[in-house]
Design a protein that fits this description.
By secondary structure, the chain is α/β, with parallel strands linked by helices. Helices cover about 35% and strands about 20% of the residues.
């Protein structure tokens, strides 16, 4: 399963469901980096250094970062979805469609 790093804005309930689905998810809080206003470039660098794909709701900034430098461990950008379990299941399904997350940008939209 995937090694993921959830950005500060990513819902904890979705993280818990991803973990239940077998993914290794490190949160900003787990990493001791919460509430520090760390720039997105540094968040991505930390994830890359730890071989983890980013999970974020901050779509515009991370899509821009991917376009500027696609050499990362993966970026998964999501729209906000109050169905956290469904969101995690869509992320899990998207991860299973690619052969590794290295350099990938996955876009996960809200369910219907």
């Amino acid at each position: 399963m995937a090694r993921l790093y959830s950005n500060e804005n990513f819902p904890q309930l979705a993280v818990e469901e991803l973990r239940r689905l077998g993914h290794d998810v490190l949160t900003v809080l787990d990493a001791g980096r919460a509430n520090q206003s760390i720039p997105d470039e540094e968040v991505l660098a930390f994830a890359k250094a730890n071989n983890r794909a980013i999970l974020t709701l901050n779509r515009k900034h991370f899509i821009r970062l991917h376009q500027q430098s696609p050499e990362h461990a993966g970026i998964i950008v999501c729209t906000f979805d109050a169905d956290f379990r469904g969101q995690a299941q869509r992320i899990d399904a998207a991860i299973k469609t690619v052969d590794g997350l290295q350099g990938q940008l996955l876009r996960i939209n809200r369910g219907n």
